[in-house]
Fold this sequence. Notes:
The protein is of the alpha/beta class. The chain has helices spanning 64-71, 74-79, 92-101, 111-120, 165-176, 200-206, 218-224, 251-256, 258-277, 279-294, 300-308, 318-330, 346-354; strands at residues 32-38, 52-57, 83-89, 106-109, 126-135, 137-141, 156-159, 191-194, 211-215, 228-232, 243-250, 310-312. The strands form 2 sheets. It has a 7-stranded mixed sheet, sandwiched between helices. It has a 5-stranded mixed sheet with strand order 8-7-9-6-10, sandwiched between helices. Keywords: Cell inner membrane, Cell membrane, Membrane, Signal, Transport.
Amino acid sequence: xxxxxxxxxxxxxxxxxxxxxxxxxxxxxxxxxxxxxxxxxxxxxxxxxxxxxxxxxxxxxxxxxxxxxxxxxxxxxxxxxxxxxxxxxxxxxxxxxxxxxxxxxxxxxxxxxxxxxxxxxxxxxxxxxxxxxxxxxxxxxxxxxxxxxxxxxxxxxxxxxxxxxxxxxxxxxxxxxxxxxxxxxxxxxxxxxxxxxxxxxxxxxxxxxxxxxxxxxxxxxxxxxxxxxxxxxxxxxxxxxxxxxxxxxxxxxxxxxxxxxxxxxxxxxxxxxxxxxxxxxxxxxxxxxxxxxxxxxxxxxxxxxxxxxxxxxxxxxxxxxxxxxxxxxxxxxxxxxxxxxxxxxxxxxxxxxxxxxxxxxxxxxxxx
Length: 368
């Protein structure tokens, strides 16, 4: 990687290291929970090159590949005698810190924390090794106040946090409408109100916001409160696909244990195949996993529409990662990052080829 400066935001970008860039699309808060989960390993199972692999993910629907793969034992089956140890996270920075410290080896995470982690380490700490999910982001509004897209002007619209992926997407959409908003303050032709997804439904009910550009299941929670989906972000992307969750690995772990990484990727590919072949069973499995993680399952009125809006896939949709970074640069929230080398899709393509599936492309951002 060239000597490009790490990703920073205008003046306040020190905040981004502490804020879940994009990761609010995947969860809330900032702490990790080591739940110590281990799927039982058969006594006669053959161990790979590592005794265990530590896997991180978020307890949210956009990480359903990890939720279902764990709940159904797909990962452990592929790992054989190597134990899968699971930890859950509620924010991108904490998962990146865990990867950097060796507390996890592989993680499901949003693209922006991956970008931030990669650039801040000068390309030395992680690689994106696979895709997991696309979509699941919507603009939901109060239908009494906003009836058309043009009506958004002058209104108060929530995004999860300054600089997170939905915030960047909304700022880019505002700019394309020809409106002006100061990215940092959120003030301008539209008031962008940075609001934690946990409290966004209450803010909507109280009338302190007129709508929100948010991920699932928050979007469907707002609809359950009487909101209306005015725009599905997928409609703004070619083929209606854009990365919302991908898989990262410690470069050190990949170098030392490529067989373990391939086993986890096989588990991911087989999990996605099962999810897509059995959507209702997979939805139930994900909800069961969420209940186990949080103590509360999502009601049908929330999980049913949310599940339908997310596509589970192996392709990391690398070209959209670059576009998302460009949108952040355009909004004034990032300096142009050098993403060359952020992907290493060799292990995934090896797995896909063995499974008789099409290989995927790194959009020119692959490791040499």
